[in-house]
Design goal:
The chain is of the alpha+beta class. The chain has five helices and ten strands, in the order ααβββββαααβββββ. It has helices spanning 2-35, 39-50, 108-114, 127-130, 133-143, and strands at residues 58-62, 67-75, 79-87, 90-97, 101-105, 146-151, 156-164, 168-173, 187-192, 196-201. The protein has a ten-stranded antiparallel β-sheet. The chain is elongated and about 100 Å long. The termini are far apart.
Length: 202
């Protein structure tokens, strides 16, 4: 009987050690997965968890100090489009470069949902997810869209994009409500992409 007790004891110890080792391994895998998450991945996860209605949106603290509550719509590689909620003129469509996000205020449920994200380098990416901010700006240029560019310095520039360079856009400034005609252009501005905080579609 003593041998049986000894073997039972050894078997119990071995099971306990294997269980602890497996637990440690799972914990390490989870730490590695969380370490690969980008802020974009977490915002995408919150958007997907909110479902079709988008929930109450998320609150962004942008570089330069602006605070914006948005409901994300489409995600690109380094940008996302969203409906800006609580705007004085109703709901506006905006494009937000990820580099302009200073921080995100998640609710408790959003924070938990955001942690279920799949790191973007492991997930299948759609076509929009591969498009860069420069591509989107070139499309707005081609369409001759009138827009507002909010910049890091606090300026809000209104006009039409004439061209998109590697690291900047050329904006023809004109009066709100005017079409971009040579006679209506008041000034030309070359704006570095690094200075863009929010692009508002007018």
């Amino acid at each position: 009987m003593r041998w049986d007790n000894l073997f039972d004891d050894l078997e119990g110890q071995l099971e306990h050690e294997l269980s602890a080792e497996e637990h440690d391994l799972r914990a390490e895998e989870e730490r590695l997965r969380l370490g690969r998450l980008s802020l974009r991945d977490r915002i995408v996860a919150v958007h997907e968890a909110a479902g079709r209605d988008g929930g109450d949106g998320i609150r962004l603290f942008l570089i330069g100090g602006a605070v914006l509550r948005v409901r994300p719509i489409t995600f690109g590689r380094d940008w996302f489009s969203a409906a800006a909620l609580g705007e004085s003129n109703g709901v506006a469509q905006v494009i937000i470069p990820m580099a302009s996000v200073g921080s995100v205020a998640f609710t408790r449920s959003q924070a938990l949902a955001s942690l279920s994200a799949t790191p973007s380098e492991l997930s299948q990416t759609s076509l929009p997810a591969r498009l860069t901010l420069s591509f989107v700006l070139r499309d707005l240029c081609r369409r001759r869209s009138t827009l507002d560019l909010d910049t890091v310095g606090g300026a809000c520039l209104h006009g039409t994009i004439d061209r998109v360079g590697r690291d900047h856009v050329d904006l023809a400034l004109h009066e709100r409500g005017e079409a971009r005609r040579e006679s209506a252009v008041e000034q030309f501005r070359a704006v570095p992409l690094s200075q863009l905080v929010v692009i508002r579609l007018v």
